[in-house]
Amino acid sequence: MIAGMWIRSTMAYRASFVMTALGGALVTGLDFVAILLMFSRVDSLGGYALPEVALLYGLSATSFGIADLAMGSAGRLGTRVRDGTLDTLLVRPAPVLAQVAADRFALRRLGRITQGAVVLGYALLALDVHWTAAKVLLLPVTVVCGGVIFSAVFVAGASFQFVAQDAAEVQSAFTYGGQTLLQYPPTVFGKELVRGVTFMFPLAFVNWVPAAYVLDRPYPLGLPQWAAFAPPLVAVGCWVLAGLAWRAGLRSYRSTGS
């Protein structure tokens, strides 16, 4: 209902919406332009050719765009905690998390999803892959699960803001920063970093691990082959932990000044 209100408000100025969405797509697309500039000087990056890096980029950008559309508004929770406006959400007959997600719902974020999907489409056309039914089915599952994983990170970051009210930038380091990290092959990073985003913050299951199966490449850290099909389990586990963190944060809330 709240999201619908913001959508109707946005579509009342359709030309403005189209220009804003296109502008957002162009701005986020600069990340891929940077990758193209790199490949104008090198033939491969960490052993990955341009279409392979484009696959990593497309998967992470599309998944992150879905999460940003659904849960991006959660990054402003710290402001609501500081000024006490979170209290208005507590008295409404609707889940607080759903209200936080729908607050100032920005349909213009579709531009990020579109831009990521365009790069993903290019990668699928340019790649020389022996496609099987498992690989074809794995791609949409990976995109959806990646969106769920990133959404869980948004919720976990919002939960932390109940305690540290000025932690929006900390949250961004794991959301926007994590998405930027995943645009590049795991082979360009140190093993400790790869281990951290595989076992501690399992962002590697957004694209690195399933993409390794699609591209017939060695898995990061020598993971078993079945790990490529683990994103649904990882997504569920992330949401369970994020949900517990959200409940703990909400219970600790004591109105303005807490």
TrEMBL record:
Pfam families referenced in this protein's UniProt entry, alphabetically: ABC2_membrane_6
Coiled-coil region list: none
Keywords linked to the UniProt accession: Membrane, Transmembrane, Transmembrane helix
Record field: transmembrane: 12-39, 54-72, 113-131, 137-156, 193-214, 226-246
InterPro entries: ABC-2_transporter-like
Keyword Membrane: yes
PANTHER family in the cross-refs: INTEGRAL MEMBRANE TRANSPORT PROTEIN, SLR0610 PROTEIN-RELATED
Protein name listed in UniProt: Transporter
Organism the protein comes from: Streptomyces griseoruber
